[in-house]
């Protein structure tokens, strides 16, 4: 949606007012997904983590004002396991016992590997506060046996696989994608997941700690660019800049100031 519209088509105030208008079981924070198709390079991932931290804080504050804080679900974003931990640490004050926290950008993520689903969940399982569990967005059904060893920490998952299947079915048959058709595919999807949940748990070897390569360490100008981005992100995280503030055009001039200060 953000790619199509160039940002959110509504404000956080509008979103949270809608969330408070019905007794939803959970209300998730607005967040900035970090899938490769949206954030293709490391700097964009870091930018989107900072914006997610900011939206969590604003949504949490508004949830308190609206009396729905007990139903509020913060959301973590990132690419590497350490990204998610950093996001967690930045919103730790809102993670009270009984809170469910969302784990985002799982939709197209592989199960294995240093940035895979299991690596992220395993890393978070070590640091989630006592009494806090996770909801994993967009988890593929074949990942369930791999998540079974972490059932103590996983409260729930979701998926749009049934929606995709319904759309393809409607196109193939030349019929409308009606609520009845979607509900039928949802029921089939749910039954398949129940079957997969009964499969024996699969345990992978613990993933080695993986850190993304830091940028700009060798070249003074690249270092200034990286530091400028980091300072802008900090302002977003602390609320001094809006989460949807367009900052790309500021980076080079900000970096130039840093570069000249260091050269003086």
Strand order of the biggest β-sheet: 3-4-5-6
- The overall number of domains is 2
Structural class comes to alpha/beta
The backbone outline, from C-alpha atoms, is globular
Overall pLDDT? 90
What low-confidence regions span 5 or more consecutive residues with pLDDT below 50?
none
The CATH first-level class of the largest domain comes to Alpha Beta
Helical coverage, percent range: 40-55%
The total of beta strands comes to 6
CATH T-level fold name of the largest domain: TIM Barrel
Order of helices and strands: HHEHEEHEHEHEHHHH
> From the alpha-carbon coordinates, what is the Rg to the nearest angstrom?
20 Å
User: Any guess at the CATH architecture of the largest domain?
Assistant: Alpha-Beta Barrel
How many H/I helical runs?
10
CATH level-four homologous superfamily name of the largest domain: Queuine tRNA-ribosyltransferase-like
What percent strand?
A: 5-15%
Distance between the termini: 45 Å
User: What's the story with the biggest beta sheet?
Assistant: 4 strands, parallel
Written description of the protein model:
This protein is α/β, with parallel strands linked by helices and 264 residues long. The protein folds into two domains: 2-159, TIM Barrel (Alpha-Beta Barrel); 214-264, no CATH class. Helix content is 47%, strand content 7%. The protein contains ten helices and six strands, in the order ααβαββαβαβαβαααα. It has helices spanning 2-5, 12-20, 42-66, 81-90, 117-125, 144-147, 161-173, 179-197, 220-237, 251-263; strands spanning 27-28, 72-73, 75-76, 100-103, 133-136, 154-157. The strands form two sheets. The protein has a four-stranded parallel sheet. A two-stranded parallel ribbon has the order 1-2. Strand 1 (27-28), helix 3 (42-66) and strand 2 (72-73) form a beta-alpha-beta unit. Helix 7 crosses helix 8. The chain is globular and about 65 Å long. It starts with a helix and ends with a helix. 30% of the residues are buried. The model has no long low-confidence stretch (mean pLDDT 90).
